[in-house]
Automatic annotation (TrEMBL):
Pathway: Amino-acid biosynthesis; L-histidine biosynthesis; L-histidine from 5-phospho-alpha-D-ribose 1-diphosphate: step 9/9. This is Histidinol dehydrogenase. Its EC number is 1.1.1.23. It comes from Leuconostoc mesenteroides subsp. mesenteroides (strain ATCC 8293 / DSM 20343 / BCRC 11652 / CCM 1803 / JCM 6124 / NCDO 523 / NBRC 100496 / NCIMB 8023 / NCTC 12954 / NRRL B-1118 / 37Y). NAD(+) binds at Y126, Q187, N210. It comes from the Bacteria. Catalyzes the sequential NAD-dependent oxidations of L-histidinol to L-histidinaldehyde and then to L-histidine. It is an enzyme of class 1 (oxidoreductase). GO terms for cellular component: cytosol. Its cofactor is Zn(2+). Zn(2+) binds at Q255, H258, D357, H416.
Amino acid sequence: MNIIKNESLEAIKARIRQQTEKTVDPQVEARVTDIIKNVRANGDEALKEYGEKFDGVTLDNLKVTDSQIEEAFNQVNPAVIKALEKAADNIRSFHKLEIGESFEDNPSNGVIRGTKVTPLSAVGIYVPGGTAAYPSSVLMNAIPAKIAGVENIIMVTPPQKNGLNQAVLAAAKIAGVDRIYQVGGAQAIAALAYGTESIPQVDKITGPGNAYVATAKRDVYGQVDIDMIAGPSEIGILADDSASAKDVAADLLSQAEHDVNARAILITNSEKLATAVSKEVEDQLKVLPREAIARQAIENNGFIYLVDTIDLMIDLMNAVAPEHLEIQLENAYDYISKIKNAGSVFLGKYASEPLGDYLAGPNHILPTGGTARFSSPLGVWDFQKRIQYLQYSAEALLADSADVTVLAREEGLEAHARAIESREK
């Protein structure tokens, strides 16, 4: 890995910003626009045509039947089912703590004000297919939505020549997904956003996907809500001499193997650890099944930053705002209060990032590309909305009318003022 030392903080932060700059491929944008228009105009017919064109699968019916789901569930390795069910239990117990509550108060005589928390009616979950099929992501998307009270969870996933991934279907059954459709890519996003003969329109779309899926989500935002525009996976690690170079290298590679564009960053105040981790990464790469992917990610987007103090380490990591942040420092828990920007934080030697990916309970749908500066992990709150309400008595209105009308007229909105005065008589 590239070890960067004796470089100014400004230069390091500039490199970090450059790594996370967002670009949109105009060719992808143009193709996605055409796909969305076609799906809006031709519905299921367009979806089936794209299934043949892009996935090589001819479908008479887009919907996955209950018997297909049950058959898949029964054929999955029992050890996998056991692990999925344990993960689901942990995800439920964690996310139940996020349930938002309505509130109401009575600030003065005759005035009632409040907020009603209510679930979205329908949510669409996009699940990648093929070699990128992740049953764990089904749990992470669907379970918080269920806890929030969403009545209709619609899952879409690309059709496969050899049938849908059985573990993905099993995870959907465990998580309580209501309906599953075999459609992928930008066309799936368009179907969820606008509805077709088979697929109902939803209120929000969540879940990761390729550049076409991400671009389509960006394009339909406003017609529906979306969770985020997900970018390549990333990990940042803060470590000192107390850390194991072997463990740190393994954790860096756990994210590098996802994608050639994945980011893996170590920030340390130990030159000894930096050198050892760089060597360990190379040694572990040589025996990694996904070496080609991970090596490209490490060579292009893997950095070890060597700085003088822990405070500077934390300052830099807050600038990175990583999707996953591991703190492998002595007394790691003591530093959580100093972390301002991160998707999910893993504290100490034994809290390896894959625990969060699969089993522990916190969500693994996280902000990427520095967006942890202003956004949060997926949670129950993403599937709820808030409705405000207000009630005034005649006496309370009279008490406030002069202040309302003077502000309305200050803004040049005479009808606002007259609406209040109409009730004074």
